[in-house]
């Protein structure tokens, strides 16, 4: 999931002076991007473009992996066998998304160990949404509807990202994300249409808690998003944070009506002049607090990842030993 908010790194430092050769290469690169060409791993690219992509793709990968935790928490408590099977499949999909994306980032010359180390030491970010707790079963439905829904909005334009390995990974990921959204919406619809009064209240409570953090997933407002302009020029980002957020709000209003839930924003209303819904102010102080490591579950999420990595050491070692043994056998044959 969830890349738009991931481009929240520092403003890039000034580039060193370039040689005439570099300038010519860079011009050719810019012309290719301008002409709608896709860049492959072996192609020449400016260092700044490479670093931007490494940051974005690796933080996207971390988000997929950390994103398994809030939902994985409910696998043992899913209300029916069908819901459990669906949730297991979804969580497993997210692991796959993380792996495609780590592999895409590796094509840019960074290693899996470097990326994992950046996550575990707190240098790399992941989407702030996964630092909120999942308090009830309705949260799992709402995550599918709103969080995976926001992920789709963010990610569909990335299937046209100028860096081809990233774009290709996103094509596969987006197909699965649309299933994720539908299963969440379906779980909520079942509770709203066939559930008890208590279950309907549970759904409304989950919507109340997840609505604003979902809007934050699109990242800071355009005027405070330092890397947006460059990323758009390079064709990494195709649609701005605010435009995607607006698209998401417009789509969610109709879906909320069908569900029979209220979105927790008294200022949310249709603006005929703009042809869009107006909505209330987002609490950006909360967003930056959570991105900065002080959300409700940041410590717990990171601790769970570090523990999983440490507990898995023997598996990685065994797999490497097995691969070495196989290679020796093949050489001997
Ligand atoms: Fe995903
Ligand atoms: Fe997903």
Q: With helices defined by DSSP (H or I, 4 residues minimum), what is the helix count? A: 13
Main β sheet profile: 2 strands, antiparallel
Beta-strand percentage? under 5%
Helicity range of the residues? 55-70%
Cα-to-Cα separation, first versus last residue: 44 Å
What order do the SSEs take from the amino end to the carboxyl end, as H and E?
A: HHHHHHHHHHEEHHH
Small-molecule components bound: fe (ii) ion
Shape: globular
Describe this structure in words.
This protein has 333 residues and is an all-alpha fold. A hairpin with a 4-residue loop joins strand 1 (269-271) and strand 2. The chain has helices at 20-34, 47-66, 68-72, 81-106, 112-120, 137-155, 164-194, 197-216, 228-233, 241-259, 284-294, 298-311, 313-332; strands at residues 269-271, 276-278. The N and C termini lie far apart (44 Å). A two-stranded antiparallel ribbon has the order 1-2. Residues 1, 94, 148, 151, 177, 180 line the site of one fe (ii) ion (FE2).
Topology:
Elements: H1 20-34, H2 47-66, H3 68-72, H4 81-106, H5 112-120, H6 137-155, H7 164-194, H8 197-216, H9 228-233, H10 241-259, E1 269-271, E2 276-278, H11 284-294, H12 298-311, H13 313-332
Antiparallel strand pairs: 1-2
Helix pairs in contact: 2-4, 4-7, 6-7, 6-8, 6-10
Features:
333 residues, two-stranded antiparallel ribbon, single chain, binds fe (ii) ion, globular, mainly alpha, 2 strands, 65% helix
């Amino acid at each position: 999931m969830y890349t738009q908010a991931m481009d929240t790194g520092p403003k890039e430092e000034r580039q060193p002076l370039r040689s005439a050769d570099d300038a010519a290469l860079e011009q050719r690169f810019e012309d290719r991007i301008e002409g709608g060409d896709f860049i492959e791993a072996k192609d020449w690219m400016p260092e700044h473009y490479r670093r931007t992509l490494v940051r974005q793709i690796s933080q996207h990968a971390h988000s997929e992996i950390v994103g398994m935790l809030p939902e994985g928490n409910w696998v043992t408590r899913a209300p029916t066998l069908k819901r459990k099977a669906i949730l297991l499949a979804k969580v497993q999909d997210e692991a796959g998304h993380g792996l495609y994306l780590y592999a895409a980032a590796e094509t840019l010359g960074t290693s899996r160990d470097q990326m994992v180390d950046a996550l575990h030491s707190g240098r790399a970010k992941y989407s702030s949404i996964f630092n909120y707790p999942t308090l009830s079963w309705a949260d799992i439905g709402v995550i599918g509807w709103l969080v995976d829904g926001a992920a789709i909005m963010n990610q569909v334009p990335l299937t046209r990202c100028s860096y081809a390995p990233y774009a290709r990974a996103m094509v596969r990921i987006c197909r699965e994300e649309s299933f994720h959204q539908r299963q969440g919406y379906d779980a909520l619809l079942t509770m709203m249409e066939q559930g008890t009064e208590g279950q309907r209240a549970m759904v409304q409570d989950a919507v109340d808690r997840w609505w604003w953090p979902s809007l934050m997933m699109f990242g800071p407002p355009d005027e405070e998003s330092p890397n947006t302009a460059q990323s758009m020029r390079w064709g990494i980002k195709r649609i701005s944070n605010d435009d995607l957020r607006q698209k998401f709000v417009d789509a969610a209003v109709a879906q909320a009506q069908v569900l029979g839930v209220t979105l927790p924003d008294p200022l949310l209303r249709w603006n005929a002049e703009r042809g869009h819904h107006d909505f209330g102010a987002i609490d950006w102080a909360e967003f930056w607090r959570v991105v900065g490591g002080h959300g409700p579950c940041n410590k717990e999420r990171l601790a769970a990842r570090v523990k999983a990595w440490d507990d898995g050491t023997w598996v990685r070692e065994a797999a490497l030993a097995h691969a070495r043994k196989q290679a020796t056998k093949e050489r001997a044959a």
